[in-house]
Design brief:
Number of domains: 2
Distance between the termini: 76 Å
CATH superfamily of the largest domain: Vaccinia Virus protein VP39
Strand order of the largest sheet: 4-3-2-1-5-6-7
Number of strands: 14
CATH topology of the largest domain: Rossmann fold
Structural class: alpha/beta
Radius of gyration: 24 Å
Largest sheet: 7 strands, antiparallel
Shape: elongated
Strand content: 25-35%
Helix content: 25-40%
Number of helices: 12
CATH class of the largest domain: Alpha Beta
Amino acid sequence: MTTLPEALAEIREALLAPGLIHGEGRGRRRDAAPSVVKATVRPVVLKSGPMLQIVTDDGQRPTTRNVNGPAEIDKLLEEPFGSWVVASETGTISLQTTRKGAIIHRGAPPAGGQAQQAHDREKKHLLDPGDPLFAAVEADARKRRQVDAFLRQLDVDQLPRSPHIVDLGCGNAYLTFAAYSYLSGLGFDVRVTGVDVREDQRRRNTELASRLGWAQRVRFIAGDIADVKIEPLPDMVFALHACDTATDDALARAIEWEAGWILAAPCCHKDISRQLRQGPQHLLTAHGIMRERFADVLTDVIRSGMLRERGYDVEVLEFIDSKHTPRNAMIRARRTGRRVSDPELAELVREWGINPALRQRLPATR
């Protein structure tokens, strides 16, 4: 047991010393509440030199500022947080306030702990794999890698400062929550809406958003992608592994909403494969495994072409290595408003005698 001023002085010294990895204050004391839910401190290197980055979260949105010198740290330590944890290359210090003062625990540095500047760390992970968020959403390592790779395809320089993102077919909302955490950490005043057909998923995800203190910025709707009502209309639409024609539903709604960006990683291309199986036999479709692989390619070629016809620049890319998921293709589209007519696309559809789901969901082009 030690006095609170003595304990805070030790925390201050650790936050300002070389070798800092990460510091976090959170919780409240018995007699007072801080003005923010939590605060984190980490070293960064900017063009102007090394600084400390302070991120404070008021429960609705984070605020990031880069500081040089102890004055801002002193101000932060005046907040009546219930606890502090500071990890550095030399060790870990934990402070827990009590009625009579504070309890300090000192331990070893984090495993593999080494002071890394923010720009170095981000090359490896956009979100720290140890972030409590991933434990809260119960995301395993495979899902964390997929979400991280998906978010790397965002062109954050092209986003408005207050973007609205809609995640269609969000399921357990791994991507929904990670997108909010990542973009808000960059200083965006972001709102995210997750849509899933299951009401139990909506309840589960809404409860989790409340526990994380994000309920005002992250919301969930239960309903079909094809007819869900979204207000305000989104700037960006996500669809991560929406199965079969659910991806077509997502693309159609994004086009209808004139979303500025669409990022879709398709899954389970069953619809076109089924139509090819029922059509005339062909060398490309006679064997089941070849038919399925060809249907994957044909489906996404048609989706990409239809997006271009409706005013989008489109890329189809591999967003993650196939060892992490075989469904590793992504359609990334940016709205330009320049509509084009593609006779080759129409001929491809006629040649194979198919009726693509996305075409059924969209009005005919003029």
